[in-house]
Task: inverse folding
């Protein structure tokens, strides 16, 4: 099962290279259900894996002028602040048992997986439904709705901190709608935002003294980085919208499966 998990790590990178999101949506279920890692620790691993992989992809996009540094700072700073505080203080403060019935106990681990499943379903819908933004790749003068961008940055940061998700499915539509950004530029910018906030969120985990298996983490991350290069190559030859929609249906089924598994099995 460990080797299967490592093979699937490549798909994490491929999804980030193709559509700028989806990496964490795959990472946490792979770590929990295939590699047998505790959900809380898996969300920490996910932050490092997705953050490192997104950083490589973001640098590539920056070199190709498909990322905007000003937007990274405006959206990224409140998000970084929120994710760090969530990982360092909010998540450790959540009790191990949240709610108890005669036949069911809602534990912290189950609650995190259920929240993650909801995030997966939201992510899948953003991939399946038509994109709200422009298909043009032409760079225009960007305009910013600062209050909304700052608010969404904080919300995405808290969500990232709780479930270890990069939040690309939230960031990309926000950049397209709130900053009037072309889709291709939004994807590249999103990767840099995901990278910075995920890696700093992982730094918050290091303060909690969790036992991290660095060998497993680094191998998974290395394979995911290989995957992002494959994703970039595939995106140049295959129509991205079809791949995105197909991946969206897969993520939707995974989200439904996780809810069923945690509540009924």
Result:
């Amino acid at each position: 099962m460990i080797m299967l998990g490592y093979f699937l790590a490549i798909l994490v990178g491929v999804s980030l290279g193709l559509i700028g999101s989806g990496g964490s949506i795959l990472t946490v279920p792979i770590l929990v259900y295939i590699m047998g890692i505790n959900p809380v620790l898996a969300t920490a691993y996910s932050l490092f894996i997705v953050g490192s992989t997104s950083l490589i992809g973001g640098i590539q996009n920056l070199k190709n002028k498909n990322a905007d540094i000003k937007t990274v700072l405006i959206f990224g700073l409140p998000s970084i602040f929120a994710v760090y505080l969530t990982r360092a203080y909010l998540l450790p403060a959540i009790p191990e048992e949240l709610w108890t019935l005669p036949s069911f106990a809602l534990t912290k681990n189950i609650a995190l997986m259920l929240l993650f499943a909801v995030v997966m379903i939201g992510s899948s819908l953003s991939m399946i439904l038509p994109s709200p933004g422009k298909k043009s790749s032409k760079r225009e003068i960007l305009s910013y709705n600062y209050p909304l961008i700052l608010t969404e940055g904080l919300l995405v940061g808290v969500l990232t901190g709780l479930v270890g998700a990069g939040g690309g499915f939230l960031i990309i539509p926000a950049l397209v709608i709130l900053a009037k950004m072309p889709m291709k530029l939004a994807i590249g910018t999103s990767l840099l935002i995901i990278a910075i906030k995920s890696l700093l969120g992982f730094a918050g985990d290091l303060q909690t003294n969790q036992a991290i298996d660095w060998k497993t983490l680094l191998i998974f991350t290395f394979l995911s980085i290989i995957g992002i290069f494959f994703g970039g190559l595939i995106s140049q030859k295959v129509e991205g919208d079809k791949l995105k929609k197909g991946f969206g249906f897969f993520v939707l089924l995974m989200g439904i499966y996780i809810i069923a598994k945690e509540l009924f099995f």
In short: The mean pLDDT is 82. The longest strand covers residues 97-101. The chain has one domain: 2-264.
